[in-house]
Design goal:
The protein is an all-alpha fold. 72% of the residues lie in helices and 0% in strands.
Length: 141
């Protein structure tokens, strides 16, 4: 479907991920949760991974064609995700509780500058790396 071939390292990586999932789930279920809630959470996790795989298959032809910058694809994906999450929070009856996380605290004094400066550093490093793979500009007519 996406013309990818799996090699031995891919299989080893997949086995390591599955082993990590099985090891990390060997604990008693959280208190106050029913079996139906736990199974529902597992089902939602499986659905999210399946939908992500569909999205990757849909996006691959565009990204491999070379005419759509990777950073724009990532930005559009993040904006769509943020918009969906915003709508979900606004529609929730517990939205006050969810939005309370964003009330500024003492830690914000360090978190905001750190995230901004870290992002600038990352943008610079990624931008320099991606410029190598950008097609050269066409000569003027």
């Amino acid at each position: 479907m996406i013309a990818e071939t799996l090699t031995i390292p891919h299989y080893i990586g997949g086995a390591m991920i599955l082993a990590a999932v099985f090891i990390s789930t060997r604990h008693p279920p959280p208190a106050g949760r029913t079996r139906a809630q736990i199974l529902g959470g597992i089902a939602l996790g499986i659905l999210s991974i399946a939908l992500m795989a569909v999205g990757i298959v849909m996006a691959k032809p565009v990204l491999t064609a070379g005419n759509f910058p990777l950073m724009w694809a990532v930005a559009i994906r993040m904006m769509a995700g943020a918009a969906c999450l915003t709508l979900m929070v606004l529609a929730s009856p517990r939205r006050r509780e969810m939005l309370a996380v964003f009330k500024p605290t003492v830690q914000w004094k360090y978190l905001l500058p750190g995230s901004f400066l870290g992002r600038l550093r990352l943008d610079g490093a990624v931008g320099r790396r991606l410029q190598i793979h950008q097609p050269p500009p066409s000569p003027p007519s």
